[in-house]
Amino acid sequence: MARLFLLLAAFAGFTGVALGAFAAHGLRSRLSAEYLAVFHTGVQYQLVHALALLGVGLLALHVPSRTLGIAGGAFAVGVLLFSGSLYALTLSGIGRLGMITPIGGVAFLVGWACLGLCAWRLA
After folding, report:
1. Please, how many CA atoms are within 13 Å of residue 10, restricted to the half-sphere of its CB?
2. Among candidate residues 9, 8, 10, 42, the one with its CA nearest the CA of residue 23
3. CB–CB of 41/32 below 8 Å?
4. C-alpha span between 11 and 4 (Å, rounded)
5. What mean pLDDT do residues 72-80 have?
6. How far is CA 3 from CA 6, 52, 59, 123, in A?
7. How far apart are CA 28 and CA 112, in angstroms?
8. Which of 29, 35, 75, 100 is deepest in the core (most CB within 10 A)?
9. Reduced to 3 states, what is the DSSP secondary structure of residue 32?
10. Is the separation of the CB atoms in 104 and 80 below 8 Å?
11. Mean pLDDT (whole number) for 92-103
């Protein structure tokens, strides 16, 4: 489990930085300021949760637990649904893709709640 979350953290971090650079240099002249801000929000949440996945992976090396696995899975799903839907929305212009974004946000909340529960049980 730890290896999977560390690999997901590395992938999310790498692609987050790449997508941020792509937006700053390649999309600035192609997207409206509003859509560029939406894309940036996706990058920001992806990078924050790449660090969360890194923390889950490192913690799983020492404290393997089912709750921790759920936290990591929820963070990964959150990145895919939240950030992915924002990227797809801004690049395609299909506004209905924004309906997926809150599902990703809920996945982030589940991940943080599970991480908190795991920390509570450490005593």
Report:
1. 8
2. 42
3. no
4. 10
5. 98
6. 5, 14, 11, 25
7. 33
8. 75
9. coil
10. yes
11. 96
pLDDT per residue as tens digits for the range 17-35: 999 999 999 999 999 999 9
Residue 1 one-letter amino acid: M
Whole-number pLDDT of residue 3: 97
Helix (H, G, I), strand (E, B) or coil at 1: coil
End-to-end CA distance of the chain: 22
Long-range CB contact pairs, 25-29, < 8 A, 24+: 27/90
Report the 10 Å Cβ neighbour count for 94: 11
Residue-wise pLDDT for 43-60, tens only, equals 999 999 999 999 999 999
